[in-house]
Write a structure and sequence with these properties.
The complex is a heterodimer of chains A (253) and B (109). With 253 residues, chain A is mostly helical. Chain A has helices at residues 6-26, 44-71, 76-91, 107-114, 116-133, 142-164, 170-196, 203-212, 215-240, 242-247; strands at 94-95, 100-102. Chain B is mainly α and 109 residues long. Chain B is extended. The interface between A and B is large, with 81 and 66 residues.
Amino acid sequence: MLLKNPKRAGWLLLAIFLFSVRVAWARTGAAPVKMHIMEGYLPLGWAIFWWVVAIPFWVIGFRQVRHLLRDKPEQRLLLGLAGGFVFVLSALKLPSVTGSSSHPTGTGLGTILFGPFVVAILGTIALIFQALLLAHGGISTLGANAMSMAIGGPLAAYGLWRLLKGKVPTYINVFLAAFTADLATYVITTTQLALAFPDPVSGFIGSWLTFAGIFAITQVPLAIAEGILTVLIFNALQSTASAEMQQLGLQEV
Amino acid sequence: MSAQTQKQPAKFGIGLTLVGILLIIFLTALPLVLVKDSDFAGSDGAGAAAVEAIAPDYNPNWISNIWEPPGGETESMLFALQAVAGGILIGYFFGYMRGRKAGPRDSED
């Protein structure tokens, strides 16, 4: 029953991969974007805009975390694990084929376990740590960075996860969710920069392609690695924490 | 239906897990072999450079970081600290689960 349609999943994977490579090839040589927008690198208006967009997600996220801790206190440890995963992965700057370094997000796992709103909180905690202690990202750009890494990426992953749930083998779905959360984060960052800095000649689209630049080539291998790692952790969770996973409806027996 | 006897196709054995780990190492190590003459700097600076190329008049210094690590060493220490914090949470979780599964051990001996 699990392997209902592995072929289709395989084709989907291949299509996504080829598309990413195609996009990347089209723009090699352009400047890469980074995962977090540096302090000051968004004009005040956009910085405020993204803060305002992010706030409702934080509010809902806070509520969901509170409810989770109250109603299912036994999930506390698993929540810690999901947060720890984000912390570890977003601290690892991995070398990439473009000659620069970039880091994965780790948000896919938490999204599958607890949904995108809870991850909005987990991801934002990591972002605040990096903004305050590492000068990596910033407070003015916290809204925008949260929108991409902690909210948008997880939302995209969650949508895909729900859509494919039961239709593809679980491990493929887990892989795709983690892969998507990672990659979508970069797509959103790119969009944010392109909106704030449209190219004087080619406008938003031209700017988007410039900022997207190498991100696919930079990020696709890392997103694949993150996908595999998330599958391994998910698998380990199913065998070591089956009670918790069952409570979250994530355990097939 | 009994959970114990049924095959659980979602779970990987040790073999597939090892394959997965090797794949991850391969994917991260590959650039080190493929790309020569690069120090794999963070793309932070390049992203900022792209902004400067598109909007040369833009002044990003309207706000600056409250605090910045004085140098690369302190920065990598703080990054390591972040990874350690996450690693503790992950290790604690799996250790706790393993201990719970094993059950209480006789402490009399």
